[in-house]
Design brief:
This is Porphobilinogen deaminase. The modification S-(dipyrrolylmethanemethyl)cysteine is found at residue 242. The strands form three sheets. This protein has a five-stranded mixed sheet with strand order 2-1-3-10-4, with helices on both faces. A five-stranded mixed sheet has the order 7-6-8-5-9, with helices on both faces. It has a three-stranded antiparallel sheet with strand order 11-12-13. It folds into three domains: 4-97 and 196-220, 3-Layer(aba) Sandwich (D-Maltodextrin-Binding Protein, domain 2); 103-183, D-Maltodextrin-Binding Protein, domain 2 (3-Layer(aba) Sandwich), CATH 3.40.190.10; 227-301, Double Stranded RNA Binding Domain (2-Layer Sandwich), CATH 3.30.160. The protein is globular and about 60 Å long. By secondary structure, the chain is α/β, with parallel strands linked by helices. Helices cover 35% and strands 24% of the residues. Bound molecules: the ligand NCc1[nH]cc(CCC(=O)O)c1CC(=O)O. The site of the ligand NCc1[nH]cc(CCC(=O)O)c1CC(=O)O has 9 residues, from strand 8 and helix 6.
Length: 307
């Protein structure tokens, strides 16, 4: 019998695409076989407001409990959706090479940010995206939206909104990259911490001894891991969650890590931004140090004003 890996996944198009990518890579590395095991969560069943069922954490908690129970061997997440606190009994076993970290404008008629008419309506549920949109174009009407990627794109094709902003990585992973009318470079719109990166978790017990431990180590990309550690440590040190108006983006080159972080007022009226560089091996320290700098510069006021 060959070695067989059970990859737990939510049933959304994005989750299936991401889990499929990781499963294919682990099969190629390990020589074993893999299957996707769909996990239906309360968040998928109940379409009410997320806050009423315990926030975005509900998806993660349910998928993790199936991993802890031994129903699957690994689970795959968008790293930006994972809480920054470590999970008991689990190991963040692999962070694969990050795809495009950028946000993307998907507008009607091929329009860019500069070309949108005065007062155009742009959908996003993210305070970080709203703040930066309004900083670029104070006249825009930012509309709160929810739902999966296709639902959001549908608001533009139906004419309900002039544009939406989504992560470029998610769009390309589900084959909807053609909907992008302008890639918003991280210099123009600072991404969410860990945007574009995937996280593969296994039980802590399997992180060393299992037949697939070596394949997970091979899948892990040291540069991406250092970058996301810096970005997520910054977020944690600001004591901000995944819905806070916080942007962070790190790159690693020749062992040097450069991290940019910003905290924004949701109406785009203020932004506190700073940058730090140092050895990639000190990623966590750099994230913490940049957070301390931002707090010195007044970040706590902006964060306490956020919802
Ligand atoms: N919060 C939802 C979510 N979680 C991960 C992605 C896309 C993939 C990624 O950012 O890595 C998205 C959609 C989006 O932000 O457009």
């Amino acid at each position: 019998m060959t070695d067989h890996l059970r990859v737990g996944t939510r049933g959304s198009t994005l989750a299936l695409a991401q889990s499929g990518l990781v499963a294919d890579q682990l099969v190629a590395i390990s020589g074993g076989t893999a299957e996707l095991v769909r996990i239906r969560t309360q968040g998928d069943v109940n379409q009410g407001p997320l806050a009423s069922i315990g926030g975005t954490g509900v998806f993660v908690i349910e998928v993790r409990s199936r991993l802890l129970a031994g129903d699957v061997d690994v689970i795959v997440h968008s790293l930006k959706d994972l809480p920054t606190a470590a999970a008991d009994g689990l190991s963040l076993a692999a962070v694969p090479v990050r795809e495009d970290p950028a946000d993307a404008l998907c507008a009607r008629d091929g329009l860019t940010i500069d070309e949108l008419p005065a007062g155009a309506s742009v959908g996003t549920g993210s305070p970080r995206r709203a703040a930066q949109l309004l900083r670029l174009r104070p006249d825009l009407q930012v509309r709160p939206i929810r739902g999966n990627i296709d639902t959001r794109l549908g608001l533009v094709t139906s004419g309900t909104l002039d544009a939406v902003v989504l992560a470029a990585a998610g769009l390309s992973r589900i084959g909807r990259g053609a909907a992008i009318t302008q890639r918003l470079d991280p210099n123009l719109m600072l991404p969410a911490p860990a945007q574009g990166a995937l996280a593969v978790e296994c039980r802590a017990l399997d992180a060393d001894g299992s037949w697939f431990a070596g394949a997970l180590r091979t899948l892990d990309d040291g540069g991406t891991r250092a970058a996301v550690v810096a970005e997520r440590t910054l977020l944690a040190a600001l004591e901000a969650g995944c819905t806070a108006p916080v942007g962070a983006y790190a790159t690693v080159s020749a062992g040097q890590l450069t991290l940019t972080g910003a905290v924004m007022a949701i109406d785009g009226s203020r932004e506190i931004r700073s940058r730090i560089s140092g050895p990639a091996g000190s990623a966590a320290e750099l994230g913490a140090q940049l957070a301390a700098e931002l707090i010195d510069d007044g970040a706590a006021d902006l964060l306490s004003a956020a919802p």
